[in-house]
């Protein structure tokens, strides 16, 4: 390969560039990013940036040594695939390639209505929202997911009057199910945040939210945190197989009508990759995958054998707590509690037989680190020992 283009200047894009060079690719390399900023990390946007602790989350990359044509503020508008290679069309012209990395991430979902609504995806979103988080501002947050909880945390600390409106019966219901999510509901009240579950928003209007069924919630600011969708619009007409995300195999190779293309990979929030571990397609919107998966995608593009077989991991900092999750529990058979969720620190463990499928930890980082190893290795565990928070999690492994 002599001309590789990476489309998308988020963490996955930068990591793809670094990995390609690290693995010895010496040809031309272009990184296209719709944003004008150098690639930056997003997790701090709803945490340290909103809290006013930092403005800078730029990814530390050795740009001079990487030898990349870094094109900021240039959006890919379409993709043409030839028998081998093809061309990316941008607002500035057409760029031919013989290797392509698709890393265009995801964009927030917005709600109907003509009123002003904010989302939180970019550094600009975060800095603009931060300006408005002043004492007494009535902030309505739609969605009690990860982003909603983190913004509520920062806004309450700044003295805003925060109401979180959630259509499901509990916070985090989409991610963890209502039963588990409801364990976090008391955190809102403790922080002085009004949580209204089971309430659907019909539209965002000037001055507040129109609720389904006729209610009204007055607000000075509205932040919508109801999830994201992969950024695929520019791939319309390319012929690539798209579902919810760019369909890839376990090595991040894309396909056209079910036939794999070895010269194009997709990675990060935009990729729906095949997991051999779980025997299903995965679409995770997690920093850890954007950090680590591009190494596999780069190896694949360079013709090496590589597969991504890592259990998902993410974290959230909300209401003064560190919440971490590792694994995948959709098909797990049972739940074991390690500690009382009414207390400050606890862990939930999902099991199938004596296999640990996933954990959710609240301020128990050692459990998380040890569980990640057990999940990766697939070693059987003793559920009774697992249920005892006084026993280190790693000691629950059966010998
Ligand atoms: P993105 O970061 O979305 O980057 C994609 C880039 O591609 C963007 O710059 C975009 O502008 C650009 N682009 C899109 N379309 C085009 C185009 N057509 N042409 C050129 N460029 C294009 N994860 C965690 O695990 N823990 C957390 O605590 C956490 N907190 C988060 C907080 C916030 C506020 C947000 C927004 C996300 C958070 N995440 C967290 C998720 C994590 O940040 C994402 O999983 C990660 O950023 C995905 O990286 P990516 O490179 O795949 O996509």
Write the layout of secondary structure elements.
Elements lengths: L2 E5 L3 H12 L5 E6 L29 H4 L2 E4 L3 E6 L4 E5 L2 E5 L1 E4 L3 E3 L14 H10 L5 E5 L3 H12 L3 E6 L6 H4 L1 H4 L3 H6 L3 E4 L3 E5 L2 E4 L4 E3 L2 E4 L3 E3 L11 E2 L1 E4 L4 E4 L2 E8 L4 E5 L4 E3 L4 H15 L11 E6 L2 E7 L6 E5 L7 E7 L2 E8 L2 H13 L5 H4 L13
Parallel strand pairs: 1-2, 1-7, 2-3, 7-20, 9-10, 9-15, 10-11, 18-21
Antiparallel strand pairs: 4-5, 5-6, 8-16, 12-13, 13-14, 17-18, 19-20, 21-22, 23-24, 24-27, 25-26, 26-27
Helix pairs in contact: 1-8
The protein binds flavin-adenine dinucleotide.
Quick structural gist:
With 399 residues, the chain is an alpha/beta fold. Helices cover 21% and strands 33% of the residues.
Description of the molecule:
- The protein has 399 residues and is of the alpha/beta class.
- The chain has three domains: 178 residues, FAD/NAD(P)-binding domain, CATH 3.50.50.60; 115 residues, FAD/NAD(P)-binding domain, CATH 3.50.50; 77 residues, FAD/NAD-linked reductase, C-terminal dimerisation domain (Enolase-like, domain 1), CATH 3.30.390.
- 21% of the residues lie in helices and 33% in strands.
- The protein has ten helices and 27 strands.
- The strands form seven sheets. Strands 3-2-1-7-20-19 form a six-stranded mixed beta sheet, with helices on one face.
- Strand 23 and strand 24 form a beta hairpin.
- Helix 1 packs parallel to helix 8.
- The site of flavin-adenine dinucleotide (FAD) has 36 residues, from helix 1, strand 2, helix 8 and strand 23.
């Amino acid at each position: 390969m002599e001309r590789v283009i990476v489309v998308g200047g988020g963490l996955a894009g930068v990591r793809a560039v670094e990995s390609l060079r690290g693995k010895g690719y010496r040809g031309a390399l272009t990184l296209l990013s719709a944003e004008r900023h150098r690639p930056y990390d997003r997790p701090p946007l709803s945490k340290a940036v909103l809290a006013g602790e930092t403005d800078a989350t730029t990814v530390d990359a050795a740009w001079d040594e990487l030898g990349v044509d870094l094109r900021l503020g240039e959006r890919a508008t379409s993709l043409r695939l030839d028998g081998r290679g093809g061309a990316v069309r941008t607002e500035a012209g057409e760029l031919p390639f013989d290797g392509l990395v698709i890393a265009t991430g995801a964009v927030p979902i917005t709600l109907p209505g003509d009123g002003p609504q904010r989302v939180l995806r970019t550094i600009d979103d975060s800095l603009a929202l931060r300006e408005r988080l002043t004492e007494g501002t009535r902030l309505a947050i739609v969605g009690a997911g990860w982003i909603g909880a983190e913004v509520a945390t920062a806004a309450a600390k700044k003295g805003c009057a925060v109401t979180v409106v959630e259509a499901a019966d509990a916070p985090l219901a989409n991610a963890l199910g209502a039963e588990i999510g409801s364990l976090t509901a008391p955190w809102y009240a403790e922080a002085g945040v009004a949580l209204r579950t089971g309430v659907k928003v019909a539209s965002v209007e000037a001055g507040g939210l129109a609720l389904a069924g006729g209610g009204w919630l007055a607000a000075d600011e509205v932040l919508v945190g109801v999830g994201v969708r992969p950024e695929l619009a520019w791939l319309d007409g390319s012929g690539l197989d798209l579902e919810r995300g760019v369909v890839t195999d376990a090595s991040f190779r894309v396909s056209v009508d079910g036939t794999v293309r070895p010269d194009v990979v997709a990675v990060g929030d935009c990729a729906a990759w095949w997991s051999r571990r779980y025997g299903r397609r995965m679409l995770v919107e997690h920093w850890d995958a954007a950090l680590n998966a591009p190494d596999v995608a780069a190896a694949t593009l360079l013709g090496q054998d590589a597969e991504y077989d890592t259990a998902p991991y993410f974290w959230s900092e909300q209401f003064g707590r560190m919440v971490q999750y590792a694994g995948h529990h959709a098909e797990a058979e049972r739940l074991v509690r390690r500690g009382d969720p009414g207390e400050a620190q606890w862990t939930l463990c999902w099991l199938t037989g004596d296999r640990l499928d996933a954990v959710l930890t609240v301020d128990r980082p050692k459990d998380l680190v040890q569980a990640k190893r057990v999940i990766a290795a697939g070693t059987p565990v003793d559920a009774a020992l697992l249920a005892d928070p006084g026993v280190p999690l790693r000691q629950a492994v059966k010998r």
